Amino acid sequence: MIFIENKYTSVYFSIVERSKNRNISGYTEKHHIIPKSLGGTNDKSNLVVLTAREHYLCHILLVKMTNGVNKIKMIHAAVAFNNWTSNKHKRSVRINSRIFQNLKELRQHVLKHEMSKPENKKKSSDGAKKLWANSNYKQEASAKRKLLWKDSDYLNKMKDRTRTFKQVNVNGVEYFSLKEAATQLMIDPSTVSKRCSSQDEKFINWNYI
Q1: pLDDT tens for each residue of 21-79
Q2: What's the rounded Cα separation, in Å, for the pair 18 and 33?
Q3: Which of 33, 85, 184, 187 would be a feasible disulfide site paired with 191, CB 3.0-4.6 Å?
Q4: DSSP state of 90
């Protein structure tokens, strides 16, 4: 079952059902009842029209209605909702700082728990091995690395090792710190550090910036 049976799920579907039998005037937003990242579709039966406040509330409730990988997806969606803006309506909804902090802490906790499972560790490891087994990927990664070393700004950043947070670049994606990279990649910070310092060509595109 996608959703956990709890009070948050009940509230969520009460909002959904209420929205189906009314007409709203003014600003509204479309919401996927079953989020697309959880297998939902764009079919009319999976869409409801909500007010901005209801939409915001539904994304917070979805975090409390799921677990495991699905929970991680809903946390990411809720955090992203904080910065979502509609150019058409000039609409911007901001999550207050307390809720935002709780979401970030919850994401870290869930990721750590999921990564502790042997099957997820193996999946992460197998994925990395498969990626680096691709000769084209290796060549592209090597070419990007060489270009970086020709950039004076990049060289200056590499020389600056006195910063409190060491920024990390993994396969072209920049992370603010080892901790952030480890959280997003679902591996230990020590593993990120070792790969960034490694001379092994498998990790040629893992480095500090």
Answers
A1: 888 888 888 999 999 999 999 999 999 999 888 888 899 999 999 988 888 889 888 87
A2: 13
A3: 187
A4: T
Which residue in the block uniquely carries the two structure tokens 């937003």?
29
The gap from C-alpha 130 to its chain's centroid, in whole angstroms, comes to 22
CA 57 to chain CA mean position, Å:
19
- Of 44, 32, 116, 46, the C-alpha closest to 74 is 32
**82: confidence class by pLDDT, cuts 50, 70, 90:** low
Arithmetic mean of pLDDT over the chain? 79
- In terms of DSSP bridges, do strands 85-86 and 91-92 run parallel, antiparallel, or are they unpaired? antiparallel
Residue 147, in any domain of the structure: yes
At which of 62, 88, 115 does a domain end? Answer: 115
Name the residue range of residue 18's domain. 7-115
Model confidence at 156: pLDDT above 80: no
Among residues 129, 128, 133, which one has the least CA distance to residue 170? 128
Q: Does residue 111 share a domain with residue 165?
A: no
Structural domain tally of the chain? 2
Element holding 86 (H helix, E strand): strand 85-86
The whole-model pTM stands at 0.53
Assigned token pair, 53: 């406040």
DSSP code of residue 84: -
